[in-house]
Amino acid sequence: MVAVDVGGTSIKAGVLGADGRLGPVDRTTTPPAGSDGAPVLDAVEAIVRRLSDGGRPAAVGVVVPGIVDDAAGVAVRAGNLSWRDVPLRDLLASRLGCPVAVGHDVRAGGLAEHRAGACRGARNAVFLPVGTGIAAALILDGRVFSGDGYAGEVGHVDVGHDLPCACGGHGCLEAIASAAAVARRYSAATGTPVAGSRDVAELVRRGDPAAVAVWDDALDALAYGLSLLTGVVAPSVVAIGGGMGESPELVLRPLAGRLAARLTFQRPPRLVGAELGDRAGCVGAGLLARELVA
Amino acid sequence: MVAVDVGGTSIKAGVLGADGRLGPVDRTTTPPAGSDGAPVLDAVEAIVRRLSDGGRPAAVGVVVPGIVDDAAGVAVRAGNLSWRDVPLRDLLASRLGCPVAVGHDVRAGGLAEHRAGACRGARNAVFLPVGTGIAAALILDGRVFSGDGYAGEVGHVDVGHDLPCACGGHGCLEAIASAAAVARRYSAATGTPVAGSRDVAELVRRGDPAAVAVWDDALDALAYGLSLLTGVVAPSVVAIGGGMGESPELVLRPLAGRLAARLTFQRPPRLVGAELGDRAGCVGAGLLARELVA
Questions:
Q1: Chain B residues with CB inside 8 Å of A165's CB?
Q2: How far apart are CA B229 and CA B118, in angstroms?
Q3: How far is A291 from chain B (nearest CA, A)?
Q4: Which residue from A221, B11, B101, B116 lies 20 to 30 Å from B40 (Cα-Cα)?
């Protein structure tokens, strides 16, 4: 199985072995976007051929961001990639001559965390990667729920602030609590550029007041978002992914406290760090490919 | 099949025929609550015996509010009935000598609206009765999703106001947008008691400014709640139940406009009135009973 995770900035790919483990991850820069997807399709084709040593893989799994119709294999809308209704599965299958599964990057990551990561064994769980954007994969009654491709968009629910969001709305969770928003807001508040949210986290550890303020805003908003997920779908476990999820003392513990303060009779989910890191989408892509030929 | 819907104020019951239609609905007042459920169990037993003409029904379905563990048949927590962990299914089965299905009133109503009402044919839908309280039944991938009994509590998500809620929280949707809240807030604002939200609706039709203000607050909050449901589970249809759902011009149309204003790339659900009225829970109870013996 060749597994490919197409992101807005990089394409990650690898080979999923029969044991369900992903081999070394090949990383390349995502080519400039085109609305028909051609430059990205060229890149994916080249990567798959390289990873297959010229042979034909049994199946290929490709995951992309945005709104994805998994059943039809169509990338309905992928913001960063400028795609609209690209029939990715059929285009790649005809180029590669093998079955291709197309899925959503975050839902595929959730599938991977459920099969082989932090959500293992949970009947109802959420995988919540906090990166450039925020979206959730919902595992409900043991299956990844897609909502016709539209479910899990918790990054764009209104959590009650007045900042604008790239989606065109206001008050979105993503606009205040994504890793990108944390870095951007710290830079804007202090005039000091930072490379990313990890730099802000380091400043929080050192007690930098502006970093603490930005971090607090992000945690409050994430707790709000988690309270909505808890009220609506009631996961027993939420696995936080992305750089922020890696820190128990800076993220998981304060988030659990703030979430508990927002709940009354609801069942508080256990908050844990995701386990598969930035390989989750790629592992999930491999699992989707394996389902095609199982 | 005998179907029973135990509410905080009344018990509705009827016989579900082989054609899936519910016969005349028998209504009695819910007896005073007891933590072991005994007075209510006595009442349910008497109703079932009366509706069975002294015979033994093939199966009985009973639905109750609160947190219900459908699989175990346990009423985990039913606020108005003061129940905690009442093993309703086993208690009733031993009294009645027939199989008993226990479910949640709103989820059972959602099942009924999906099988035979406003959500018919929808793969992903929400049934949202707006009554004394507010809770949602989620139909996801064609099945009612319970979240271990905790899903759909959209009445207690924070929609950004500062009013206290009976659950102990603040800002809950239910505290500003339930039929009870609308009536209570109008009475508080004007000093004029009203019997319920229908009276307030009538005043809105006549242009009463205080009624319009209370109604607007409720619609804004409901649109907020619907935007959260849309972002998280992406239903293609939302069936609004309760008295408020019956009015296209006062509820459905203004709600659709306010919801659209809150969405950007998300798929707006179609908003419709529920079709089964206050019989939905009872029809659902009958369907649950039928599944036991199918």
A1: 264
A2: 18
A3: 19
A4: B116
Please give the C-alpha separations between residue A133 and each of A154, A155, A178, B229, B243, in angstroms, as whole numbers.
Answer: 10, 7, 6, 19, 40
Encoding tokens for residue B8? Answer: 């905080």
SS3 B153: coil
Q: How far apart are CA B223 and CA B228, in angstroms?
A: 9
User: Which of A124, A262, A263 faces B147 most closely, judged by CB atoms?
Assistant: A124
Q: Which residue has the tokens 């809150």?
A: B262
CA distance B158 to chain A (A): 8
Distance in angstroms (rounded) separating the CA atoms of residues A127 and A110: 5
Residues of A in contact with B232 (CB under 8 A): 136, 138, 151-154, 157, 228-229, 232-233
Query: What's at A76, amino acid-wise?
Result: V
- A172-192, pLDDT tens digit by residue? 999 999 999 999 999 999 999
pLDDT of residue A77: 86
In order of their start, the domains of chain B are 2-108+278-293 (3.30.420.40), 120-275 (3.30.420.40)
Is A232 close to B168, i.e. CB distance below 8 A? no
Low-confidence ranges of chain B (pLDDT < 50): none
Q: Which residue of A has its CA nearest to B268?
A: A150
Residues in A touching B260 (Cβ below 8 Å): none
At B161, list the tokens.
């106001």
Question: Residues A49-80: pLDDT tens digits?
Answer: 999 987 889 999 999 999 999 999 999 988 66
- Compute the nearest-CA separation of B164 from chain A (Å): 12
Residues of A in contact with B153 (CB under 8 A): 231-232, 234, 266
- Beta-carbon contacts of B74 under 8 Å, excluding residues fewer than 6 positions away, are B68, B85, B86, B87, B88, B89, B102
Distance from CA of B264 to the nearest CA of A (A): 6
A91: Cα separation from own chain's centroid: 24
| Class of residue A117 by CB neighbours under 10 A (exposed 0-12, middle 13-18, buried 19+) | buried
Residues of A in contact with B167 (CB under 8 A): 264-265
Angle separating helix axes A179-190 and A197-205, nearest 10 degrees? 60
